[in-house]
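Why do we care about 3D structure at all? Because function follows from shape, and shape follows, mostly, from sequence. That is the central idea of this module. The next example makes it concrete: a single protein chain, its amino acid sequence, and then its structure expressed as tokens.
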Amino acid sequence: MTIEAAITPSVGPATKATGSDFAQLSRRIAQDGLLDRRPLYYSVRFGIVGLSCLAGGVAFFALGDSWLQLILAAAMAVLFGQLALVFHDLAHRQVFSRRRPSEIGGLITSNVFVGMSYGWWMNKHTRHHVNPNHEEKDPDVAPDILVWSKRQARAAKGLPRFIGRHQAHLFIPLLTLEGLNLSFNSFKSLSSPTMKRPWLEGALLVAHFVIYFGALFTVLSPGKAIAFIAVHQGLFGIYLGCIFAPNHKGMAMITDEDQLDFLRRQVLTSRNVKGSPFMDIAMGGLNYQIEHHLFPNMPTPALKHAQVITEAYCAEIGVPYHQTGWIASQAEALGHLRRVGEPIREKH
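And the structure:
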């Protein structure tokens, strides 16, 4: 069954009698207890990440003004990625059922530890979840520097048009700037009317960078400090890209013309990366992207069990369900970037 054939869901007597396709899937998921909180899992996971942060700080001061700090910078890039996954789960209320502890944990993890605005990211990520891969409504596929569809490529001007010709080759190098880009947009968002607590978020962001740059330029010589920042921020950006790019890039792009129910909108625009214990940890469960989009507040350890149920159910109702390996997922994403840039290349 093609994606185009799945655009308009069929509604037969059985569906009308038992609710939408998503409602039926939800009942199966709930019956298996997959939406129940997992306090032990998150206590252990957050404890490991917290102890790793402490160990990283101790190692930084113990090494002193040494080029060995670049190895630590690479390790801290991975740790920052894990911190980003922590506040992602907090934002989706996978950890706490109440909003206030989720927000407090998110602000501490995101603003103080990572240097990214929790409120700005939360607003952006919520809009992405509501309209994944929607050309006009998903901020993650807005034609900022890259173009994500041929329609966007035809309309591209300025920098997106210049980069769009070779964006598949430039994608990984551009990811090295993603960490700095997220911090820049975080400060920029403080003046936005959608920001609930601009003064608090701004103060926490300033505190992060005072500590970050203060420690680096106090302990390290200027050259080593700049090298540390380059390695740390560059690898952090690449790590984030390797977590998030496989999830939707190269999957169906939709517009208001496409009539999709909730289940099809989430499944057809998402891609799973085949899981393994290592992949589950490295991607924080986001390798089960289809299940995460269908059930955003599902705790991470339940996602792989939900995957089995969801894949079988999609086969049952005739909805394409895409899952592939990590390398293949990256190739599909890069191949998509190359294809959508064709209209720009054809004019040169």
